[in-house]
Amino acid sequence: MAKDSPSQQRPAGRGMQHASREINPNLADLPMLMCSFLSGLVDAASFNAAAVFVSMQTGNTVFIALGAASLPAGDARRWLRALVSVASFLTGCTFFASMSRLLGPLRRSTLFASFFLQTLLLVVCASLAQTNVAPAFGIANVDPFAHVDLQEKQARDDQWAVYLTVALLAFQSSGQIVLSRALGLGEIPSVVLTSLYCDLVSDPNVLQSSNTKRNRRALSVVLFMIGGIASGWLQRTVVGVRGVLWIAAGIKLVIAFGWLVWKGKSKEGADAS
C-alpha cells in the first residue's frame, strides 16, 4: 500500500513532523535577549527575598567562601542558600544539556519542552510565594527605608520552602545558558554579565557601525538592567516578589509556544514552515 503524500497525512502526523523539525536560528537572538531581561527580573527578586542569586553564580560562590568565616554578619547561613543555588544550577545545566543532545538541540519540540519545563518550575515557585509557604518570596509593598529585623529575616530565609524555591529557580535558569550555547549565541549567555562586559569593551571592532555581536552584548546588558529595575519597582508595590515570578512564568510560556511556530529549516538548509 502506497504511503500517503504530505497533503494526505493525518493532522497528528503533520504536527509531529512539524514539531520534530529544526528551527532556523535566524533571529533566535530575540528570545535569548528576552531571557536576559528575565534573568534581571528574577535575580533581583531572589536577592531581595533570600539574599542569593539564582542566575549569576559568581556572587553565590563569593557567599559560599564568606561562609567559611561565618559571614556576612547577621546572615551566617547565606552560604547554604548560595550552595543550594550553585548545586541546582549545575544540575540543571547537566540536565538541559543532556536533554538537548538526546532529543536534538534545535528541534521545535526540544525547545518547547525545555521552556515549558522552565515555566512549570517558575509556576511552582510563584505558587509557593503566593501561598506564603516560602515566606521570603511572599513579600510585597517593600519599603526601602523601613527598619529590618535581621533575626526575623534570617528565620524567614532559613525555612525549607525558601531553599526549595531557590533550587527550582536556579535549575530553570540554567536552561537559558545551555540554549545560548546550542544556538551558537555565546555573546548572549543571559545569566552572566562579567564576560559580556569584558568582550564588549575588548572587541577591536567595537566602534564599527555594523557589529552584530557587539549589539547583542550591549542589548543583553541593557535588558538585564531593565529587568532588575522593573523587578525592584514591582516589589515596592502590591505585585511583590510573587508577582514578579508570575510575570516571569508568563513570559517564558509565551517563548515556549513561540518555538512551536518558529520558522523551520529544511533538509537543504532553506527556510521551511
TrEMBL record:
Keyword Transmembrane helix in annotation: yes
Record's keyword annotation contains Transport: no
Pfam families for the chain: DUF1275
Domain of life: Eukaryota
Keyword terms of this UniProt record: Membrane, Transmembrane, Transmembrane helix
Spans through the membrane: 79-99, 111-129, 218-238, 244-262
Name of the featured protein: DUF1275 domain protein
Source organism per UniProt: Emericellopsis atlantica
